[in-house]
Amino acid sequence: MPAQGSAEELSHSPIVSMAAPFGLGLSDHNLVETSVAATPLARPGFSSAVVTTLPSPLPHMRSAWIEKRQGQANVTQLHYARAGVVTEEMAHVARREKLPESLVREEVARGRMIIPANINHPNLEPMAIGIASSCKVNANIGASPNASDINEELEKLHLAVKYGADTVMDLSTGGVNLDEVRTAIIQASPVPIGTVPVYQALESVHGSIEKLSEDDFLHIIEKHCQQGVDYQTIHAGLLIEHLPKVKGRLTGIVSRGGGILAQWMLYHHRQNPLYTRFDDICEIFKRYDCTFSLGDSLRPGCLHDASDEAQLAELKTLGELTRRAWKHDVQVMVEGPGHVPMDQIEFNVRKQMEECSEAPFYVLGPLVTDIAPGYDHITSAIGAAMAGWYGTAMLCYVTPKEHLGLPNPEDVRNGLIAYKIAAHAADIARHRPGARDRDDELSRARYAFDWNKQFDLSLDPERAREYHDETLPADIYKQAEFCSMCGPKHCPMQTKITDADLEGLEQVLAEQATADRKAQQVG
Ligand code: SF4
After folding, report:
1. Quick check: CB of 474 below 6 Å from ligand 1?
2. What pTM was estimated for this model as a whole?
3. Which of 96, 122, 294, 306 has its CA 20 to 30 A from that of 370?
4. How far is ligand 1, taken at its centre, from the CA of residue 448, in Å?
C-alpha cells in the first residue's frame, strides 16, 4: 500500500496499476492559448508551414509577475508554494494541465512537480514537470567546435518548439561564442532552457583541468542564472569514492560533464567541488529560481553497464542532494540513464523514486539495445515510452545521429517526433484524462477518408501529407476512399457497417437462437 499522497498513489503507473487520475492528454502548445500562439512556432504538429525564418521577439508574458518579486531573497516556485502562495506560473500550469491550482501548489511544495522558470526569462511560457502532469519531452541542441553556428542553433530551437519540445537544452561546447548563443536562444525561446555549466567552465580555462578552480565552476553557474537559464545540469552526485566502482565497465564514464568532474578529481585528488559547494550553488539558484537537474555522471553507456554498483551509488547521493536542495527551497529534478534493457526499466524508475523522495525523474532514452547506430531515436524511444509509463516525468530525446555526429535540423525533427510518440503513448497508458482524444479524432477522420483532417491531426502533418502525395498527389485524391496501399478496389474501410446494420443482425441472431431452442424442445 503506497503512503498517502505518494508518487505511486498519484501516478498509478504500472508499478501500482495503469491509470493516472491527473494530467491532460497533450502538453503541446497547440492546446494552449498563450503568447506562444502568436508565433509561427505555436502549433507544433498542426502547422502546415515549415519554419524557415526567425520569429520576432516573443511577448514577455511574465514581466509583471516577476516585477513584484524584485528584492526578495528567495524567488523559487517551491518557496512560494511552501508559503501557501499560488503564483501566476502555478495558475498558468494548472490551466495548461487541466489540474486544480491547489493540486499544482501542493505538488510543487512537495517537490514532486517543478516549474523551471528563471526570473530572467520573462518570455517563458510556464510549464510543469512531474508525475501529476503529462509526460514531457526535452530536445538537446548546441554547437560543437566542429560544426554549427548561431543561426543553425536558432533554427534547431524553432524546429524543436514547432515539433513539440517542452524544454530545450543548449549543450554548446564551442565553435561559437557560448554566451551569445545562449542569450539568443533564451530570448527566442518560449520553453524552459537548460544548460550544463561545466562545459563552459572548462572552456573558460581553455580546456586545462589543472587550472580549473572551484570558483570557476560557481562563476559560470551564476552567469548562466543571470542570463536566464531555467535549469542546469549539476554533476554534484559523482563522488571521488565512486570512481573506483567504474572498474569493469565496458564503456566507463559516458557523461561529458561527469567525465570533466572525474578528470578534475583524478588530477587534484580532491572531492567533487560541485558536491562540497552544493549549498553555495543552492544560494545562487534561489536568487534566480534556477532549477537543479541533478546529473547522472555514472549513467550506463551500454547495456552491459546498466544498473551497476557505480550507477546506484551515485543515485543514492543524488537523493541526499535532492533533500539538501529542498532545505533551501530550491527546485530539483533528477537525471537518469541511458542504456537499459527493457526488463530493468521499471526497477530504475522505482529505485529513483525511492532514493530521491519522488523528485521528478528525467531520463535520456533509455536505449534498449546497442546495435542500431543510425536508428537510436527508435531504440531509445522504446525505452522512453516504457519509462514514461512507469512514472518518469520527462524524456530527453535521442536523435538518429546519437553516437555518430552532431544532429542537423532534420535529425532534431526525427528525434522529437519519436519522443512525442513515446510521451503520448505513456500518457495514454497512464489513462490521463483526455489523452486519447486526438487519437480518436484522427481515427474518425481516417474512417471518413477525410485526408486533410488526418494530416492536420498528425504529430508531423508535413510528413504525413508528403508520404500520401508521393503516389497520389492530385487534389482529387484528398477525397478518395482509398490510398495507394490497397488501391481503389480493395480498401476494406470502404465497407461501412452501421450500428443499424449490427442491431438488425443482433435481432436476426436472437430470433435464430429462439427458433433453435424451440426445435430442440420439440425434438
Ligand atoms: S487503401 Fe488500405 S491502407 Fe489505404 S486507407 Fe484503405 S485500408 Fe487503409
Report:
1. no
2. 0.88
3. 294
4. 12
